[in-house]
TrEMBL record:
Membrane-spanning ranges: none
InterPro entries: LysR_HTH_N, Molybdate_resp_trans_reg, WH-like_DNA-bd_sf, WH_DNA-bd_sf
Gene3D superfamilies linked to this entry: Winged helix-like DNA-binding domain superfamily/Winged helix DNA-binding domain
SUPFAM superfamilies hit by this protein: Winged helix' DNA-binding domain (SSF46785)
Organism: Desulfocurvibacter africanus subsp. africanus str. Walvis Bay
Alphabetized PANTHER family for the sequence: DNA-BINDING TRANSCRIPTIONAL DUAL REGULATOR MODE, TRANSCRIPTIONAL REGULATOR MODE
Name the UniProt record assigns to this protein: Putative transcriptional regulator, ModE family
Residue span(s) of domain HTH lysR-type: 25-85
Domain of life: Bacteria
A Pfam family annotated for this UniProt entry: HTH_1
Molecular function in Gene Ontology: DNA-binding transcription factor activity
Length: 138
C-alpha cells in the first residue's frame, strides 16, 4: 500500500451482548458459498476450517432465527444460500458499500488528503488526489 495515499478501512458489524453475529467475514463466507456451492471450499478459500465456518453460519442462524444455507438437492456435500441468506448477503453488501461511500465522501471534505477506498487484490483501485498544501477551513 502506498504510504502517501491514505486508504479508508471500515469495520461494520452486527452484534448482540454475546458478540458478533454478522460482519465482513460472514459476508465473504456467504459470497464464497454462493460462488463455489460448497461450505468446505468457501472455508478453505477464506483460510478457516470447515468447523469454524459451520460454527459461524450456525451462530448467525441462531441469532436471526432463520437458515442462511441449505443442502443442494442431490448433492451430499454441496450447499447453496437460502432466499433469506441471499437477501442478508445482498442487503449487508449494499449497506457496507453505502457506508464506505459516505465515509469516503465526507473524508474528502474534511481531510487534507483525499482518502481512497480499500481495494482487495481482485478490484481496481480508485484514483486518489492528495492536496499537499491544503489548509483546513475555519
Amino acid at each position: 500500500m502506498d504510504e502517501h495515499h491514505p486508504t479508508v478501512r471500515m469495520h461494520l458489524w452486527l452484534e448482540t451482548e454475546d458478540g458478533v453475529f454478522f460482519g465482513l467475514g460472514r459476508l465473504k463466507l456467504l459470497e464464497s458459498i454462493e460462488s463455489s456451492g460448497s461450505l468446505k471450499a468457501a472455508a478453505i478459500s477464506l483460510g478457516m476450517s470447515y468447523r469454524a465456518a459451520w460454527g459461524k453460519i450456525k451462530r448467525t442462524e441462531c441469532v436471526l432465527g432463520f437458515a442462511l444455507i441449505e443442502k443442494t438437492a442431490g448433492n451430499r456435500t454441496g450447499y447453496r444460500l437460502t432466499e433469506a441468506g441471499v437477501l442478508l448477503k445482498d442487503s449487508y453488501r449494499r449497506w457496507l458499500d453505502d457506508v464506505e461511500r459516505m465515509a469516503l465522501e465526507r473524508g474528502s471534505q474534511l481531510l487534507p488528503c483525499i482518502p481512497r477506498k480499500y481495494v482487495q487484490d481482485d478490484e481496481e483501485p480508485l484514483a486518489c488526489d492528495c492536496l499537499a498544501n491544503a489548509v483546513p477551513a475555519g
